[in-house]
Amino acid sequence: MQSLNDRFDPRLPADTLGIVTLAEKQQRMIDDLAVIEDVQERLAVVVDRARTRPPLPAAERTEANRVKGCVSLAWVVGETRGGLCHFRFDADSPLVRGLLALLCDLYGEAAPADIVATEPALLEQLGLTRSLSPTRLNGLRSVRAKIRDFAAAATA
Hints:
Elements: H1 4-7, H2 22-34, H3 39-51, E1 74-81, E2 84-91, H4 94-107, H5 112-117, H6 121-125, H7 134-155
Antiparallel strand pairs: 1-2
Helix pairs in contact: 3-4, 4-7
């Protein structure tokens, strides 16, 4: 039987998945995680997926890349290639690292204008926000703002 992680890798290029828009990519991510009925198990899968991702090099763990407003130490690095945004991340907390992976996978390989216009509805629709403390939610808003600001600057 194919595991959820084997079935869907949001880091694959959108055209590989037959996905055209960021909204469709987000819906696919929601559909794939929604098969896990228990919200805590969903969150565990999100955290587990992030464990396989490489850490940021020390040279990229700079104040400029740090997510301000996040209680944990967290960094997001954005770059554009071929007109699309790509994100790398790291955090000192496994939970925060998992949430960063989810958002960076959602917005990775997307056009800057789409990133600016698309809110991360998957967090609410999957019930993940109900399991987070107010400080974690504030940190997530800061991550979203950092990703949005990078994308907005890339469109300028």
